[in-house]
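Journal club side-thread
Mid-discussion, someone asked how the predicted structure for our own chain would compare to the paper's figures. Pasting it here so we can look after the session.
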Amino acid sequence: MIKIKSTKAIKKRIKKTSSGKLKFKCTNLRHILTKKNKKRKRHLKNKKIVNKANNKIILKNNPYL
């Protein structure tokens, strides 16, 4: 059987939790932080869970996740 290639960009950005959900880090926290308020930066620090609609697409592109 042929080995399925996974999407490398998604593979680098998404991890699987112990319960089977997918988590990712938020964007917009790398540079130009002076114009963003503290609350926004604080909320962007935390990891987020991928929603169900995108979950299927990600698992289809990365079968070995």
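Post-session note: The first helix runs from residue 8 to 13.
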